[in-house]
Specification:
- This protein has about 160 residues and is α+β, with helices and mostly antiparallel strands.
- Helices cover about 30% and strands about 30% of the residues.
- The chain is built from five helices and eight strands.
- Strands 1-8-7-6-5-4-3-2 form an eight-stranded antiparallel beta sheet.
- Strand 7 and strand 8 form a beta hairpin.
- The longest helix is centred in the last third of the chain and has 23 residues.
- It starts with 6 loop residues before the first helix and ends with a helix.
- The mean pLDDT is about 85.
């Protein structure tokens, strides 16, 4: 019997191409709870927060549906776009997303409170999402900006 590896297991086996991290002066548990909340329904600040700022999500055109397997989901977008694969591992405080890139957000404790790390393991260089002005050198800057925005939403929600 052949089983397909989980998205997180697949990405764990790959080296990170880019990594950014930021810290938040808040306990790990509430930060992880907000970051790892993924359920069927519309994507927003209370559901699949890591993609809430994507243009399709801001336009209300991104919806989460259950996938096959533990913690597996799919974000479906309006229009001719491939669905986004998502896997949440609450025990390891990680969420993986695969679209035109495949990356993992992880939450860990640190002396300042909570460290959130975003690693990108794979990018489809011919995909319009990558080719449309997000050259390889600009991806790290975009990742840093997006992570700061993500933590800004979490900080606002937690009042810290």
């Amino acid at each position: 019997m052949h089983t397909t590896p989980s998205l997180l297991a697949e990405l764990d086996a790959l080296p990170a191409r880019w990594e950014v991290q930021e810290t938040l002066a808040a306990p790990v548990a509430p930060v992880a709870a907000l970051l790892l909340t993924v359920a069927e329904g519309r994507v927003g600040d209370d559901n699949l927060l890591v993609l809430a700022r994507a243009s399709a999500a801001r336009q209300g055109a991104m919806t989460v549906v259950a996938g096959s397997g533990a913690g597996a989901y799919r974000a479906e977008l309006a229009g001719p776009v491939e669905p986004v694969e998502i896997q949440v591992d609450r025990a390891r405080s990680m969420v993986a997303v695969q679209s035109w890139y495949a990356g993992v957000h992880a939450v860990t404790a640190c002396p300042e409170g909570t460290r959130v790390t975003h690693r990108v393991h794979r990018v489809l260089p011919d995909h319009p999402g990558f080719a449309a002005g997000i050259a390889e050198l600009g991806l790290r800057a975009r990742m840093s900006r997006d992570l700061r925005r993500l933590l800004g939403v979490i900080a606002d929600r937690l009042g810290c």
